Structure formats: C-alpha cells, structure tokens
Amino acid sequence: MLANVGCPIFSTRLSRDLTGQPTRLAWVTADPRNTVCAPRVQVKARPRRAFTLVELLVVIGIIGILVSLLLPAIQAAREAGRRSSCQNNLRQIGLALHNFADVNEALPASGWTRIGPGNPTGKYVGWRPLTLPYIEQENVRKLYDFNLNWWEGTNPTVAAVPVKIYQCPSVPTRADVMSAVAHPPRPAMTFANPIAPADYEAIMGVRPTSINPHLSTPIYNYGNRFSVMHRNSRNRISDVIDGTSSTIMVVECGARPLVYRERRAVPNVANDQGIGWADSEGPFSLDGSRADGTAEGCGPSGGCTAAMNAKNDNEPYSFHVGGGNFLYVDGHVQFVQETIDIATFAALCTRNAGEVVGDY
User: Fold this and answer.
1) Count of CB atoms situated within 10 Å of the CB of 173
2) What is d(CA 313, CA 317) in angstroms, rounded to the nearest whole number?
3) Which structural domain, as residue segments, surrounds residue 251?
4) Does residue 1 have a pLDDT over 50?
C-alpha cells in the first residue's frame, strides 16, 4: 500500500476583490517528491468587466459635446491671431510710406501715369513697387524695371513674386491669377506665372456724387474729395488738414481680382482692377454699396448705405468678422466696425474737407 505522505493539499479561502465583491481563492500545495498523488484542480477565473455599448455611446456623445463647445473658441482664437497679423502688415506698410515720404518729400501717388517721385520715366506704376525698399524687399525692387509699365517686359514675372506683407492671412485660399481682362492702356493678358496678390489698397478719397446724397448739406467737390494718395498726387503729411489720426490712407480690399459679394465668391463677374501687388489701377474712391453688394454709388434712396464688406471690387472689403483694419496717415492701425455710418466713414477718407468726426 502506498503511503499518503506528500499528497497535494487543496485549500480555499474567502476574500474580496477590488470592487468589494466576495470571491474564493484556491491553491494547491504538494510534496514535489511525490509522484503518486497528483490531483488536478481547476480554478475558475473571475470574468473580466468591460464597457457596455450604451456606456460607450454615452462617452462618445460627451466628447462630441465638448468638441462642439471648444471649436468656436478655437476658431475665434485663430481669427484673433490672423487679425493681429493683418494689423502688423498694415503697420509695416505705414512705416514704409512714411520712409518714402521722408526720402521724397511726399507720399507716393496711389498710381503714377506721369513723371513723379520714384517714377522718373512717367510709366504706369503703383505705390507698392515704390515702397518695396522700405519693407525689406530691395532685391525685388532691383528686378522691377521702372522704365516700363508694370505689365511690360519682365515686370509681370517680378509681379509673380509673393510679398507676404501685402497679404492678409484671413483671406480664404485663392486660385492662381493667370490672366487679366483689359484695362486700357493695359491690354488683356495671359501670364506665364501666377500674379502675386495684394489685399491692401490706397483709398483715393470719396466720390461726391455718391456720398453727397447721404448728407443733409452736400460738402464734397473735386477740391476736397481726396485722401493723401490718389492719381499722380504729391501730397505731404503736412497737407492733411483734417488730422493725421483721423484720415485713412490704406484700406483692406481682400481676395481681388476674384469678386466677392458679402462673404460669397462670384467667379463669373469680371474684374479689371486689383490684379496683384504690381497693379497701378487698383486704388479706388468710396461710393457706398448695397448690403448684398449688387450695386454701389446709388445713394440712400437706392440702399447703398454700406461702408464696407459688401463687395470687394472698388469698395473696402475685409474677411475679419464684424469690420476691417485700416491704416491712418499717422501710422496707427485701427479696427473699424462694418456698421459705421457711411457719412462718418467718408469723413475719414478725406484729408481737408473740414468734417468733424465723432466717436465711431
């Protein structure tokens, strides 16, 4: 008879798991020298707990709600950064214009068609090519041929060089500009390289026939309708009688030559101005437009009471929410609400009409 010495001993003990539920532990001890007694003990594992489908759906729903709450805040923060970057671009442009004025004893014209400061041969040249040396773009200026119109010779190739300071970061992604409709004396053109854009433009002043109907007493005429940069002008900063801190000289006019109405692109409408930063025919005067952008200069009777952000062909237009950034003659940049009264905005666009501008 075999001895029972060394047979394995089966033991159990009642315990509790991490959730506090009772569970039974089992183990076997045996003499390793025993080759006779070898009882087999099966220990049943405690089932593992997992998420149910309902719990998973609840978690996904909560995450979706949190994302929907955070997304507008993230987008607002990004737009605030873009608006700040846009303002910095305009400040740099303001410094460039002041430096040009110091060297040439006059601000640049919005566009030259005859001999003037920076335009010794009297060609069609805009204000942006003239200010290139003052925004650290001397190498680009050296490539530009001031003995030719901006659309002639190698100048269209130079005009394809992007200049970031001339671009607002809030403007949506745009298609390449490979052609331009005619704007005499410039013919219709096809470009070998896409023309680099510009989202900032000189405001030449106001159009009296468009703005006077908004006033109880008409005041604008050819002698006082201008700002500091207009066609073939030679204005000094001291010529600003209305005050340099209340006279705008550069406005936002984004995404040209693609036409926008309100916030929608209208690709089937042709635009012959604002082709790029080298274009000398992009500057314009304020007319006022309908809120839907379908007309401009039609006065209050025609509903043309919007000062900005209704249309981007020949009117101020920004992609910032609620208004736009504007560069004043003294060099400061200010965000102006798009709800500003058009008569008040017109007063900001002239240098010597004698208007009294209140809060806006």
Assistant:
1) 4
2) 8
3) 73-348
4) no
Burial class (CB in 10 A: 0-12, 13-18, 19+), 50: exposed
Quick one: which of 334, 349, 346 has its CA closest to 240? 349
Tokens 């433009």 belong to which residue? 201
3-state secondary structure labels for all residues of 55-94? HHHHHHHHHHHHHHHHHHHHHHHHHHHHHHHHHHHHHHHH
- Would you tell me how many other CB atoms lie within 10 Å of the CB of residue 43? 11
**Bridge partners of residue 112, in order along the sequence:** 125
Distance between CA atoms of 341 and 325, rounded to whole angstroms? 16
Instruction: Scan for tokens 């052609």, then name that residue.
Output: 179
CB-based burial of residue 99 (10 Å sphere; 0-12 exposed, 13-18 middle, 19+ buried)?
middle
Residue 164 CA, chain-centre distance (Å), reads 12
62 is a domain residue? no
Residue 328: beta bridge partners? Answer: 248
Amino acid at 299: G
The reported pLDDT for the residue numbered 3 is: 46
Q: Are strands 284-286 and 200-206 parallel, antiparallel or unpaired?
A: parallel
DSSP 326: E
**How many structural domains is the chain composed of?**
1
Tell me, yes or no, whether 45 lies in a domain: no
Q: Lowest-pLDDT range, 40-44, 88-92, 189-193, 298-302? A: 40-44
Residue whose token pair is 């805040």? 73
* Cβ(259)–Cβ(170) below 8 Å: no
H-helix or E-strand spanning residue 158: helix 155-158
**What sign results for the dihedral spanned by CA atoms 313, 255, 271, 191?**
positive
Residue 6 lies in a domain: no
How does residue 2 score in pLDDT terms, banded at 50, 70 and 90?
A: very low
Alpha helices, H only, 222-315 = none
